Amino acid sequence: MQDADKILAALRPPHLPPAASALTLGDLALPIALGLLLALVVALLWPTRIKGRRRVRMNVLAELAAARSLPPEAAVVAEARLLRKMVVARDGTAAALAGPDFATACDRQFGTDFFTAGPGRRLTTALYAPGGASEAEDIGAGLESLFRGIRA
């Protein structure tokens, strides 16, 4: 017990390290500068991500415009391929769906009834059914309005 008393007597009271008590603005400048530089890098790269979303939408709209320039029956088939590609890219589980289930998945993704009750039904359940040029134009216009709302 005598050794413990000597050890306790040799202890100093709690205190700050000598360097921390002499902290100056120069010591804080480097961490502050690094933090501002990191914030600047994030601010510069963030719009690139938004531009990427816009690029996806523009590519889809360009593909849709190319499909709409085809004859009506070929346009409908190309639009159906584009629709499937978009829906599967946004929800991988939709790849295994077909017919009414795929139509429901499309409606759920786009928040509409275009594919189960509207002209888009032809793209999901009756792709090779006979149809006219006006129906193909309605389908193309409907897809264009839905694709314009893509937020990738």
Secondary-structure blueprint:
Elements: H1 2-10, H2 18-21, H3 25-68, H4 72-90, H5 100-110, H6 121-124, H7 133-148
Helix pairs in contact: 3-4, 3-7, 4-7
Overview of the structural elements:
With 152 residues, this protein is mainly α. Helices cover 70% and strands 0% of the residues. α4 runs parallel beside α7. The longest helix has 44 residues, at 25-68. It starts with a helix and ends with a helix. 18% of the residues are buried. The mean pLDDT is 79.
Outline of this structure?
By secondary structure, the chain is mainly α. It contains seven helices and no strands. α3 runs antiparallel to α4 (72-90).
**Amount of beta strand:** under 5%
Q: How would you spell out the order of helices and strands?
A: HHHHHHH
Give the overall shape.
elongated
Q: Specify the biggest β-sheet.
A: none
Number of helices: 7
Low-confidence stretches: none
N-C termini distance: 73 Å
- Which structural class should the secondary elements be placed in? mainly alpha
The proportion of residues forming helix, as a percent range, comes to over 70%
Number of strands: 0
> Can you give the mean pLDDT?
79
Q: Please state the CA-atom Rg, rounded to the nearest Å.
A: 32 Å
Provide tags for this entry.
152 residues, mainly alpha, 0% strand
